[in-house]
Structures are given as C-alpha cells and as structure tokens.
C-alpha cells in the first residue's frame, strides 16, 4: 500500500538573479512500512524536502500526498492537526520543550490536540526507549542520546503515518548514534512504521530498504538496497 506520493515537487527561494531551485521536479512514492533514506551533499535540498514532507514548509508547486491527503491543499489549522497526528519529526537537535519532563514532552503534541493521555501507550514507549527512571527529568538533565530517545518517543506516540528523521545521529557520538539508529529500525520493523531518514552518512543510508540520491534539487538515483518480504 502506498503511504506517500510526491509529484513534481519544486521549491524556489528568492527570485530573479538570486533565485535558487532548492527542489527541481522531485517525484517518488513510498510504500507503507518502507524504510527510505535520502542522501546527498550539503545544499542538495534534503532539508527542504523534509520540511515540505513534514508540512512545515510549502512547495512552490507539486503535490505531497500522505495517506490519501494532499497536505499542500490543507489550510493552516487542518495542517497543524494533520501534522501532529500523522507526521513524526525527529531533528538533529531534539527540539524538546525545556520546561517539560520526559513524559510531558512525549505526550505533548497529542495533548495539544485535546486528546486524553493514553497511559499504557506512554508506559510502553518509555520502557521501550529505556527511559523508565528518567520520566520526571527535564531535557537539561539528560544526555544527548537520552534527549534523542525522548524526541523519538514524541514522534511515535501518535502512531504517525510517516516518521521523518533529519540527521538524527548527527549530534551524537558513534556508539550512541548506533543505538538511536537501532531504535528507529526496530520501530520500522516491529511496528511497520514507515521511516524516511535524511543523512549525509552513506553507511547509515545503506541500512535502508531504498536510498534516494539528491543532487542540486534533483532525485538522480533511486536504489533498492534490499527487498522486503
Ligand atoms: P541540504 O539539506 O541538502 O543541505 P537544503 O535543503 O538546506 O539542502 O538547501 C538546498 C538549497 O536551498 C541550498 O542552495 C540552500 O542554500 C537553499 N536554501 C535553503 N533554505 C533556504 C532559505 N530559507 N532561503 C534561501 N535559500 C535557501
Ligand atoms: P498497540 O498498537 O497494540 O496498542 P503499542 O504500539 O502500544 O501496541 O505497543 C505494542 C508493543 O510494541 C509493545 O510491546 C511495546 O513495547 C512495543 N513498542 C511500543 N512503542 C514502540 C516503539 N516506538 N518502537 C518499537 N516498539 C514499540
């Protein structure tokens, strides 16, 4: 089943002499449960693509269809709700709320949506992430790897259609980075969580089912690494 389709995505910044084509006609589709990585040199358009897929930024033209909804057509309010329910975002620098503890950070987007706390879900996620004895702590009391675990918990709590991760290990030492990658892969495998991971680390990218190569805003190669059964 197709969970994401991108059609002829174009993103221009500026105009006239200063115009930059950050994305120049990108099209692809992703199946539910797939793990896709997006790799490319600095400035190739990776972050721009992720921001558009995440509904944080609008394209100049083109479509982004997530689970049947063209998110570029949604108004601000509907888009905000769609984002909190259907899109999980994991950033390089965690983006946690400094005044909220681990539990609160994980459940926050869900609570902002006016929904009740699913205590069992929260307990499952916290224990899965190995944060049981950290639940009352603030982000400033956690290591980088622990903070990234919290941000993964927050992204997964609402069972999003897609999990988008932008250089999630970019700020971590190698061993911690591998632990974080293992967690992301595990929810991809065990929970059939569709995962799109942006990286400039080829070793990391090659752990995906498919690798998309971006260059100058174009998808120049779409390589299947392994086929799922
Ligand atoms: P990557 O994530 O692969 O490093 P980006 O998506 O950040 O690439 O950038 C793609 C291109 O778009 C680059 O040339 C960058 O300078 C440009 N760009 C990105 N964001 C903006 C912006 N807000 N305003 C102007 N140009 C931008
Ligand atoms: P259900 O969807 O049936 O309510 P959950 O998604 O809450 O179940 O959890 C089912 C199992 O998956 C639990 O045993 C839990 O440990 C595990 N699990 C929960 N969250 C994650 C996660 N983010 N990544 C991987 N496994 C998880």
From TrEMBL:
Alphabetical UniProt keywords: ATP-binding, Nucleotide-binding, Transport
InterPro entries noted in UniProt: AAA+_ATPase (IPR003593), ABC_transporter-like_ATP-bd (IPR003439), ABC_transporter-like_CS (IPR017871), MacB-like_ATP-bd (IPR017911), P-loop_NTPase (IPR027417)
PANTHER family the UniProt entry points to: CELL DIVISION ATP-BINDING PROTEIN FTSE, LIPOPROTEIN-RELEASING SYSTEM ATP-BINDING PROTEIN LOLD
Organism field: Ruminococcus albus 8
GO cellular component terms attached to this protein's record: membrane protein complex
Matches recorded under Gene3D superfamilies: P-loop containing nucleotide triphosphate hydrolases (3.40.50.300)
Protein family: Belongs to the ABC transporter superfamily.
GO molecular function, one term: transmembrane transporter activity
ABC transporter domain span: 4-227
Source taxon at top rank: Bacteria
Protein name (database record): ABC transporter, ATP-binding protein
């Amino acid at each position: 089943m197709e969970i994401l389709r991108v059609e002829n995505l174009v993103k221009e910044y500026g105009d006239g002499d200063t115009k930059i084509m950050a994305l120049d006609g990108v099209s692809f589709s992703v199946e539910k449960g797939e793990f896709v990585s997006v790799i490319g040199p600095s400035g190739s358009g990776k972050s721009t693509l992720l921001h558009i897929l995440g509904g944080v930024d609008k394209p100049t033209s083109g479509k982004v269809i997530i689970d049947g909804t063209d998110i570029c057509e949604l108004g601000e309010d509907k888009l905000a709700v769609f984002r909190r329910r259907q899109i999980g975002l994991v950033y390089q620098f965690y983006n946690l709320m400094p005044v909220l503890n681990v539990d609160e950070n994980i459940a926050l987007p869900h609570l902002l949506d006016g929904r009740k706390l699913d205590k069992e879900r929260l307990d499952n996620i916290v224990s899965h992430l190995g944060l049981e004895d950290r639940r009352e702590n603030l982000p400033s009391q956690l290591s980088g790897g622990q903070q990234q675990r919290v941000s993964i918990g927050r992204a997964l709590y609402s069972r999003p259609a897609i999990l988008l991760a932008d250089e999630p290990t970019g700020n971590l030492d190698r061993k911690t980075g591998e632990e974080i990658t293992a967690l992301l892969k595990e929810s991809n495998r065990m929970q059939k969580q569709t995962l799109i991971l942006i990286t400039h680390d080829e070793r990391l990218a090659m752990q995906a089912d498919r690798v998309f190569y971006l260059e100058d805003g174009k998808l120049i190669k779409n390589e299947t690494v392994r086929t799922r059964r």
